[in-house]
Amino acid sequence: MADQPAQTNVLKSLRTWGENSVPPTLLATLIFAQHARPFQPLPMLFPPVLLFSSYLNLSDYKTDAAGITAAWSGLYALLALRRKQGLKNKLTARGVVRGASLGLCAVNVAGCGLAYTFGKREKKED
């Protein structure tokens, strides 16, 4: 019975994370830092979409923004996990940024997925 409040607190924290506008902006920054030099066109499709998601979130479309962030974070994680990385490369600055972006993708998929699933859309009546 003591686990119930802890689980609820974790789920609430994840949902709050998913309704925030900072995580997609942070992920877009990390993706840009990784793939700008040398320029890689396919991964560079992700930052504009994530920044647009952050804009939607600030425009009070939190549920829709959470769905876009969850979907595109998951897509980027799948794209990034296709490439294998040796242990020696994981300890470089580029490897740390890659690990941080993949970790952020995982948290975004969980938190934004919860926010999208349990989000409420208000119908505006004119």
UniProtKB/TrEMBL annotation:
Source organism phylogeny: Eukaryota, Fungi, Dikarya, Ascomycota, Pezizomycotina
Keywords: Membrane, Transmembrane, Transmembrane helix
Segments crossing the lipid bilayer: 65-81, 102-119
Organism: Lophiostoma macrostomum CBS 122681
Designated name of the protein: Altered inheritance of mitochondria protein 19
